């Protein structure tokens, strides 16, 4: 097993710089989340890893293999927009996708049947794809991604369009893969999933990597002097208060940054004195969503003003 | 070029195409349809002359009695496609008669009235009155007996021996001979013509059918977003190669099925064909036809696949298809016009220029004895065409299949050629 490395990769389409000098790496046995808004450059980055786009500059490597057909045959890839041949039969489809990855024969057929069994699709083995429900078509796509026993899983916008059962199914698959020491990289804009699953993350915005590293370290760094607060009442009196650095409203919760470590207790006291009903008060804690919005959201406002 | 990925792709294409209902139906039905069309035409033509009542009026009684004798013996009277009424009256009588019969002519109770004045014995001019005087088929049948009677009548007063009279009555019968190098001169029938028609039609149908099948399947892969999944395993070059070869093999198989009756007819004596439609085709020629066709498939399927990759739905693709249609249809019409005049210089030129060589050369070969160097040259030109268009087509395909959103303009497509992908 080896590390998946993305080194100073850039890609432009005409005048638009889709990915700008992006670097990150994914160690074995870990889950990596590539986070960003729509159009931030996640899909372009992933397509470069899959050699669907050639980078203008920079390099992608997996151990000593460069991006290309050799690397691709070790990868299970699930694109954001997933399609299958509608007229093909279930087993035929699975065997075809395994064959173009270089796997064929009785073993693969056996494994395909095992997967179909596991995913409750054993009775649909000779059905045409078009006769399956959307949820079942997704399951077929998962199996097609896994059947050649890849060393790396790359999943673009993993959770978009999945029903809750399939979401759970996919989560279990990812966790099993991690246990086997494999590499999983997925992109998403659903922060709650990323927060629960990822070991490492990168936040990408306008083609640039803004934050990159271990999720726990990033959270530790951002959570200092930060309070995650749920409440009812009026906290407007805090706005001009000298101990407050800034207040960010995230909808469900409010993130409050204080100037000094000892201000945290003062803040709690202030809230109680001002009859604010405190429901949750997490000191030195921050959610990934808060980090994400802090990193990316400010520019969103700028964009909106234009 | 043919690694396990390409082979897997070709296998999938073959399975999809060979087992598709369209393919099976078209392969089996096209020959039936072609024979059916010919039979239908014959049937319709036999239909038209069922109730043709034609009055033939001669000024001279000798002519009318002569006509009576000859026409009654004619086959078209016996099978009652034309019912002749032969009479005898003077020019002034006829003028009145015509007025009386005007109504019958207008409501087509009588198809036409032929008047043979005495002057016809000097200038052979006769008159035909009808609502549809340009019924060529009918006149063609009737003018020969009239001519015979006039000739007979004219010479009867001249005291000429019957043998010479017989000669004068005969019409010209052209026997055509094809001159081939190194072979004895043979009487040439319609076999070459039939073959030429056949090759042109089969090529035309097959290129269009297989080509548009490939285009549809490229559009389908693009619009169903299968292509991204495919590209995560195979390169776009492999994908295009697999697609084109899969379809070309399908086409070749189809052509072999279509040509097999021709091969059987030409190479055995099981079928006793009339002398004039003997088909002369050698095994080498069949091989050449299939090789030429395979090259043609590569070229045109490549073009169709490229057009398919540019567009996201079949409606848009229709508008992008016309340049390819022109490349197929113009040579097809050149082939058809060559049947009228096989040594047409346009045919010669067209059989040696890229794209049209594929369609024109086989048709030309069936009609005239094409020198070997020209056949080799046209094959080389076809191979060169494949070599030249593939990098360009591959590049457009590469960019096109991943390009979604609005329909691109031709200018944008040209820009794609500069993209680094």
* Order of strands, widest sheet of chain A: 6-7-8-3-9-10
Helix/strand structural class of chain B:
alpha/beta
Order of helices and strands of chain B: HHEHHEHEHEHHEEHHHHHHHHH
Low-confidence stretches of chain B: none
Structural class of the helix and strand makeup of chain A? alpha/beta
- Figure out the total of helices of chain B: 17
Which H/E pattern describes the elements of chain A? EEEHEEHEHHHEHEHEEHEEEHEH
Dominant shape of chain A: elongated
Question: Helix amount of chain B, in percent?
Answer: 55-70%
Uncertain stretches of 5 or more adjacent residues of chain A: 299-306
State the major sheet of chain A.
Answer: 6 strands, mixed
Mean pLDDT of chain B: 81
Average pLDDT metric of chain A = 88
Largest sheet of chain B: 4 strands, mixed
Overall number of strands of chain A: 14
Give the N-terminus to C-terminus distance of chain A in angstroms. 47 Å
Question: What key attributes describe this structure?
Answer:
heterodimer; A: 306 residues; alpha/beta; 6-stranded mixed β-sheet; 4-stranded antiparallel β-sheet; B: 421 residues; two-stranded antiparallel sheet; 17 helices
Explained architecture:
The complex is a heterodimer of chains A (306) and B (421). Chain A has 306 residues and is of the alpha/beta class. Chain A has 10 helices and 14 strands. Chain A has a 6-stranded mixed β-sheet, sandwiched between helices. In chain A, helix 3 crosses helix 4 (106-118) and helix 3 (90-99) packs parallel to helix 5 (134-146). The radius of gyration of chain A is 23 Å and the shape is elongated. Residues 299-306 of chain A have low confidence and may be disordered. With 421 residues, chain B is α/β, with parallel strands linked by helices. Chain B has helices at 4-18, 21-48, 61-73, 75-78, 91-106, 120-123, 136-156, 162-169, 191-223, 226-231, 236-267, 283-310, 314-340, 345-350, 356-367, 372-401, 410-416, and strands at 52-58, 82-88, 112-116, 127-130, 177-178, 186-187. In chain B, the strands form 2 sheets. Chain B has a 4-stranded mixed β-sheet, with helices on both faces. In chain B, strands 5-6 form a two-stranded antiparallel ribbon. In chain B, strand 5 and strand 6 form a beta hairpin. Chain A binds chain B through residues 47, 50-54, 56, 69, 72-73, 75, 77, 79, 81-88, 92, 96-97, 99-102, 104, 141, 144, and chain B through 4-5, 8-9, 11-12, 15-16, 221, 224-235, 402, 420-421.
């Amino acid at each position: 097993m080896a590390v998946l490395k993305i080194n100073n990769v850039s890609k432009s389409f005409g005048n638009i710089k889709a990915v700008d000098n992006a670097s990150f790496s994914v160690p074995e046995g870990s889950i990596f989340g590539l986070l960003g808004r729509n159009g931030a450059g996640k899909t372009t980055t992933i397509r470069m890893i899959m050699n669907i786009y050639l980078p203008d500059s920079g390099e992608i490597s997996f151990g000593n293999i460069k991006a290309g057909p050799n690397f691709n045959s070790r990868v299970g890839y699930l694109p954001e927009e997933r399609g299958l041949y509608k007229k093909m039969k279930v087993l035929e489809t699975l065997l075809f996708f395994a064959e173009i990855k270089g796997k064929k024969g009785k073993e693969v057929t056996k494994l395909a049947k095992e997967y179909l069994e596991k995913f409750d699709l054993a009775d649909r083995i000779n059905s045409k794809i078009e006769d399956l429900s959307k949820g079942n078509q997704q399951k077929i796509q998962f199996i097609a991604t896994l059947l050649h026993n890849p060393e790396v899983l790359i999943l673009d916008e993993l959770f978009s369009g999945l029903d809750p059962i399939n979401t759970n199914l996919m989560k279990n698959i990812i966790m099993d893969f991690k246990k086997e020491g494999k590499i999983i990289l997925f992109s998403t804009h659903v922060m709650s999933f990323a927060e629960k699953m990822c070991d490492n993350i990168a936040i990408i915005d306008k083609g640039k990597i803004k934050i990159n590293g271990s999720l726990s370290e990033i959270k530790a760094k951002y959570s200092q002097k930060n309070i995650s607060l749920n409440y009812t009442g009026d906290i407007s009196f805090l706005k001009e208060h000298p101990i407050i650095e800034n207040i960010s409203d995230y909808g469900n919760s409010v993130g409050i940054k204080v100037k000094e470590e000892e201000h945290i207790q003062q803040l709690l006291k202030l809230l109680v004195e001002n009859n604010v009903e405190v429901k949750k008060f997490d000191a030195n804690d921050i959610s990934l969503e808060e980090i994400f919005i802090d990193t990316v959201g400010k520019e969103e406002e700028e964009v909106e003003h234009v | 070029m043919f690694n396990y990925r390409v082979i897997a792709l070709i296998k999938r294409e073959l399975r999809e195409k060979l087992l598709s209902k369209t393919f099976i139906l078209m392969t089996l039905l096209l020959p039936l349809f072609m024979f059916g069309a010919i039979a239908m035409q014959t049937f319709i033509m036999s239909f038209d002359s069922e109730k043709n009542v034609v009055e033939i009026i001669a000024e001279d009684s000798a002519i009318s009695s002569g006509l009576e004798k000859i026409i009654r013996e004619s086959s078209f009277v016996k099978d009652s496609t034309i019912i002749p009424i032969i009479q005898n009256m003077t020019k002034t009588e006829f003028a009145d008669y015509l007025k009386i019969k005007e109504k019958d002519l207008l409501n087509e109770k009588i198809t036409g009235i032929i008047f043979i004045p005495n002057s016809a014995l000097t200038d052979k001019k006769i008159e035909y009155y009808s609502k549809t005087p340009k019924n060529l088929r009918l006149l063609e049948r009737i003018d020969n007996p009239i001519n015979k009677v006039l000739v007979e009548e004219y010479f009867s007063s001249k005291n000429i021996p019957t043998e010479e009279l017989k000669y004068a009555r005969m019409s010209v019968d052209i026997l055509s001979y094809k001159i081939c190098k190194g072979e004895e001169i043979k009487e040439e029938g319609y076999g070459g013509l039939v073959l030429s028609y056949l090759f042109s039609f089969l090529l035309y149908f097959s290129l269009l059918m297989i080509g548009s099948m490939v285009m549809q399947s490229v559009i389908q892969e693009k619009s169903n977003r299968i292509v991204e999944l495919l590209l995560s395993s195979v390169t776009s070059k492999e994908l295009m190669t697999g697609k084109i070869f899969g379809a070309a093999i399908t086409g070749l198989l189809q052509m072999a099925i279509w040509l097999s009756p021709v091969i059987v007819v030409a190479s055995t004596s099981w079928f006793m064909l009339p002398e004039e439609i003997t088909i002369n085709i050698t095994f080498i020629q069949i091989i050449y036809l299939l090789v030429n066709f395979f090259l043609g498939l590569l070229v045109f399927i490549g073009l169709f696949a490229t057009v398919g990759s540019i567009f996201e739905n079949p409606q848009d693709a229709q508008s992008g298809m016309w340049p390819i249609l022109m490349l197929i249809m113009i040579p097809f019409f050149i082939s058809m016009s060559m049947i009228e005049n096989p040594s047409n210089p346009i045919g010669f030129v067209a059989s040696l220029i890229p794209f049209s060589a594929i369609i024109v050369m086989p048709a030309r070969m069936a009609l005239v004895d094409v020198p070997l160097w020209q056949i080799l040259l046209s094959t080389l030109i076809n191979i060169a065409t494949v070599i030249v268009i593939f990098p360009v087509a591959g590049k457009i395909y590469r960019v096109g299949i991943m390009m979604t959103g609005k329909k691109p303009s031709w200018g944008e497509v040209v820009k794609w050629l500069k993209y680094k992908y």
